[in-house]
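Team,

Forwarding the record for the chain on the shared tracking sheet. I've put the sequence and predicted structure together so nobody has to dig through attachments.
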Amino acid sequence: MDHQVVPISRTGSPAPAEPLELYRRLVESLTDHAIFALSEDGLIVSWNSGAKATFGYSEDEILGLHYSLIFTPEDIAEGRPDEELRRALEFGKASVDGWHVRKDGSRFWCTDTVQTLRDGGGNVTGFTKLVQDTTDHHVTEEQLHESEERLRLLIESVTDYAIFSIDVDGTILLWNSGAEHIFGYPGADVIGKNFSLIYSAEAVAEGVPAAELAAALRDGHAPDEGWHVRRNGERFFASGQMTRLKPDSEGHARGFVKVAHDITSRNTARELVEWKACHDELTELPNRAFFSDCLRRSIAHAKRHAERLFAVIYIDLDHFKIINDSLGHVTADGLLVTVARLLERSVRPEDVVARLGGDEFAILLPEIEGLDDAIHVAERVHAALMQPIVLEGFEAYTTASMGIALGSCAYDKAEDILRDADTAMYEAKGRGRSRHVLFDSAMHDRAVGTLNLQMDLRRAVARREFSVVYQPIVSLTDEKLVGFEALVRWDHPQRGLLRPADFIDEAENIGLIVQIDHWVLHEACRQIRAWQIAYDRPALSVSVNLSGKHFARDNLLAEVESALQRNGLAAHSLKLEITETVLMENFETTAATIVRLSELGVGLYIDDFGTGYSSLNYLARFPLELLKVDRSFVSQITEDPRTVEIARTIVTLAHNLGLVALAEGIETAQQLANLRALGCEYGQGYWFSPPVSAEAAQGFIGPHPWIAPVSRS
């Protein structure tokens, strides 16, 4: 470490450090707070020791990267990084709570503040961000909230749980069929009476019911494991919990909900502890640890008997989040309990049904004759889930996506076959849900490839590994240049130059497409304006593709205006291409945005027309400029008479709507001649030129413009 000379004052004491040095030392000393600075566009420019301790990145690893890499994929998809900076710019400071991601991939809950930095003239120079890890506090609050909500669970279809509510004095108000079954009292006989009737006389004398009420009132919940008494005097050992309902608007207690389950067969302390360690408390199914242990035994058995087969069925409920969000956690928990019972009834006694977590379940079939046995079980589960499930007065329907992995002596680890079944389950979701899919090795390769692609994409956005190429758009009348379509390419460090088909879908899935599109938009506007000036071609235009993700956000118009203003480009020089599908999704919101873009002067194209599902009635209501005839029709236009008629219909439709038509994918002279005959005004394709770099594209607009038809030779 270098030694520093510390100035000495006339009094003999060290001279006071400069204010900036004192501030730097103070920031560096705050090891329990991550404090770092960002440039105007979100790149990390400083990183204190607290940031290193919190996120795990050293300065050398993090400086110069975009700060979005510390956000979760979900937050990136929702545009939270950009939204934080926008709010900081608007209000000077933005404070939010949420999840962040460490270098090792682990998540933590934090409270963070972003503040705008300005120079003496009021100009923005960057941002500061302060992050404090508050995971422990957040988890505690979440657990308490879930416990309080769960106590509203009164599901009549679950007959092996006693669920009832009582007021603050212990008077029974509601009594479900499970309580009637377990305690032997009809609801009419107990409602209005004190809940102490379920305890023995000795327990009442010792004040057990009163102590339980007091504990629940004080702590929010009170566990209850002990002996209870049925109506006929029979004693049984029960496990359950009493939970306090949320206070009313004035803060007064409203009562409690009590859940009890007969676990007499596990009435010793040791048995109870062992049971809890191996089971899910909500559904009482075996948990992941127990299931994995059973799976290991099946693998060992298959090693000793190579001819024996077993199978794992991985089950995930479809659209469970919708039920959870619309009907609440309590009802969603009730659905999970009911599904657990349905799964148990769909298998043999020797099979193992487990809840792995959330809305994920698994079935182990320890001995089967072949794949058909596993498929039959999956079909029984599908059939069982087709029946309506009544939850607190609501009829709920659910389906499941299932992955089946056939086990044999080839497996060595339980986690491997569970992973393969999970991979097949995601394949089932990708094929439309509510189905089962058998695992094959290609699925694993695809899953690994997808994960690697997602990681590479996040790095690519932070490192700006993208480039733009330009494909000429020409008038079919005289083949003169009228503009370009801007297309993104990814300069992948290992795989080379990648086309959109190689990565755009995945960028859509993980929410990075908005950032990529924004960058392409700004770069295309900059380039076309530079060409307009350099070659005195003010009519030259550029078209840019937009993902549907933009229309779910409220800043698209502002982003387009910013791209035009920053580059001094006239609005009519920019054309935005959207697909039919985007046009129809969230119609009202999309329509309003499109109208505002049109009022701004930006041209709007419908891309790949004829491949989506537009309503012609809606299409006529949009202020559009052009329809693009999809390349799938153009490629067959000389071979299939029906394709010619489709292309003719699209061109005619465009003209009837007051629009012009542009054909993409033109590769031959005959295709060009046919499209001219149909009255199509514009075209693009390899007959004129493939997409080329900006440097190569200048050859089309210079003093001696040229067209290089690749296909002609």
